Amino acid sequence: MADPISIVGLITGVVELADMVFVRTFLYVKAVKERDKDRLALNSEVGALFGILSRLQLLSGAMEGGEEEEEDEGCKPVLQAVHLDNCLKTLLTIKSKLDVHEGHGHALRSALKTLRWPFTSSEVGNLLMEIERHKKNLLLALAADGLSALLGALSMQGEIRETVHGIESELNRVALNDQRRQILDSFGSTDPGKNHDMSRKLWRPNTGLWLTNGTEFRGWLTNKTARNIWCYGIPGAGKTVLASAVIEEVLKCRSHSVAAAYFYCDYKDANTQDPANILGSLAKQLIRQSERCFKESEAFYEVHHSGKQVSTSYRPDELRDLILQMSSFFNQTMIVVDGLDECGKDTTTVVELLSSLSKSEKSSVQTLFLSRDEIEIRETLTDCNPLSIAADKGDLQLYVASEIGARMKNKRLHINNKSIGEHIMDRLVNGANGMFRWAACQIDYLCELPNDRERCRALETLPPDLESTYERILGRVDETNIHVRRLVQRTLRWLVVAKEKLTISALREALTMKDGISRLDRDAVPDEFILLRSCSSLVRKSASGQGLELAHFTVKEFLLGIEPDSEFSAYRVDAEESEVELGKACLTYLTLQEFNSRVSASREAQLKRRQEYAFRYYAVRHWLSHARGRPGNPSLLALIQKLLDPSKPWTFIAWTHDHQSIFWFEKGDPTWWQTPLTKEEQKVYDEVATFTPLHYASAFALPEICKWLLDCGCNVDHMSGFGTPLHHALRGPESLLVLYWEMGFEPFIIEWRKESVLEVVDILLEAGADPNGECAERKTPINYAYSQPDIILRLLKKGARYKGQNAYEPWPSGWAQKIILNIGRENFHEDDYAFLLQDSYKGNAMEEKILPE
């Protein structure tokens, strides 16, 4: 089904096609001196159809404006698409026979004089009857009480929306309570719905029918033919948009006996490339469709959590087995996954796991995958029926026509000569070679040209492929001043390495960050229009309209693949350098003087900072990801030192408050800000006040910063609400709030590298850290090091003792024997050795998962 805004695009495309067909038939009429009744009749009827469609387009504009605020509700009416479908087919049929010459203007008129009229009288008669039927259908929609009747019909979208929501509620049968939400949350927060919404906005009604109405797909959908399908195609062929059409068809089939789940792997979001996140999302969707599935997930959850509050991540193979088990509760379980080739280093693992879903005899899973034709994918998906994807010519014609019409409507494109509009469409459709992406870029380029003559010249020198297209865009950027060039360079680099989607407001503020600045200069924030226009087809707004992202996977590949000696080397993205650049921008922002004044931990104070300073949220959340592990950059190191200053300036305090809220309390819940600060949360902030920069540097495994802080005189054994810096180093980032897991705050765990932790431990021990110091839980450092033999050995050599009898949580059963074998009995104190052999722990599920080989 098509949403109302997409219907507007469809109407625009059909109007443009009708206009082009009318102009072409008129030229045939004018090309001959004698009056040919067939030509006149067809031209007249097409003109009448064009007039009716134009009236419908006016109504669609009113509908678009009236429904804009409700677009996100997901209304998907089909009436208009059905009315227009046959009309579109007739116009394309006429146009295909008239497209015998690609010229325009005088050259076209001259050529038509020598060409035969391509229709017989019988064919013209049939076409006239078809057009008459279309006119009656459209006039019926415009009749009754006049134009208001159609607007009234369109206004019924609210009722349709309620019906859709009722169906969704019925399909999501599982009633949720807090406990069940906790179980669902344990499967991850990666939501494919956002990608689906974006793809649906890019989709044009009545496109992709060659696939969704094709025998191959219909047979798969009804479980009558191939169990698995692999749709493959070249870059830019519209695979992801086509996937959204497939997913819509699949979701319509859901019932008590038929389940469906989908996922989009996205090169812009590392979370969507992780095997556990992919399978977790698929499992989560199935759980919501059946009470039996939820009971199965409850048992799964209990096995892995054993009543503990601490989050335990699931292995991909465990999630696969859970999906297989849940699929047995349905007669048919359809799974669609797009973008397998966008999973980077995990591509092979992801493909192997997903393809194994349909190989079990007990499984009801059938799969449909979409990706490029890459050798590792092809060799793994041998059980799938391969289906080649390329943009259908009819789809391309409709897409180009609707885009031209839409841009003329919003004044981005001005075409004075109607025949040139037709010439543009013909050239782009014939030159696309199955790539929607290529056609889109050319339309963007034509919109930038000043007149029809320049557009005609450009059509004669179109770049042959996407790489040449992107080079042409950069060539135009190179013709601008240095300020615009730098703006484009930094924007593209940062969009490539950004850890999550940057809002346009955040990116604009970030682009003002330079070495040595101390305040945010609002006058230096780049204009949004200039930013978007300068980057042209290389970027696009996100589905929400608030974010900015690379327009296509091929853009990222192109930027990363520019050779150092290329004429466009200034736009080449070196991932390592770009990470440092963005990390420096984050740290510069966090240490601005605007944040160096007395701050409060109240929600109001934090919310005000976030609202007034758009880039702050991203900077707080991701500076460490960009900066960690890159000690060779002195300016980056200096900025980390500025943030983690041992004197604990207000910039440091403000960062700790925002860090706690983002990672520990808010957890993506926008309603958290609307409630007062609880006593437990205030207690957390009070505890955070006891953490020194050395505690943070140790927990984040930043050896250079730890050494610098110790050289500055920081106390190596300073006791925080959790413990000493050594405790923090061994427990990692979660140590910053480990005491409050019992309150239900599940922390966001930041990955940290074991080799860096080892280096930090060495630095702390050499500085005199007490290897037997007890934290608030009466644990010594060695209690937290049971999975790291290298660290245990270092602690033992510094006189550490194992105090399992005093620990809140002793080592798991079997660990002691393995540790002794790894380290050697001679390194243990005799009493500790005897005690370790007797110590035990009942957490066998955990032991089976994490015991070292």
UniProtKB/TrEMBL annotation:
Domain annotation GPI inositol-deacylase winged helix: ranges: 482-569
Keyword Repeat: yes
InterPro entries: Ankyrin_rpt, Ankyrin_rpt-contain_sf, GPIID_WHD, NPHP3-like_N, P-loop_NTPase
SMART domains: ANK
Domain Nephrocystin 3-like N-terminal per the UniProt entry, residue ranges: 206-372
Annotated SUPFAM superfamilies: Ankyrin repeat, P-loop containing nucleoside triphosphate hydrolases
Keywords tagged on the record: Repeat
Any Pfam family the entry gives: Ank
PANTHER family in the cross-refs: AMELOGENIN, NACHT DOMAIN-CONTAINING PROTEIN
Protein name: Ankyrin repeat protein
Organism: Cladonia borealis
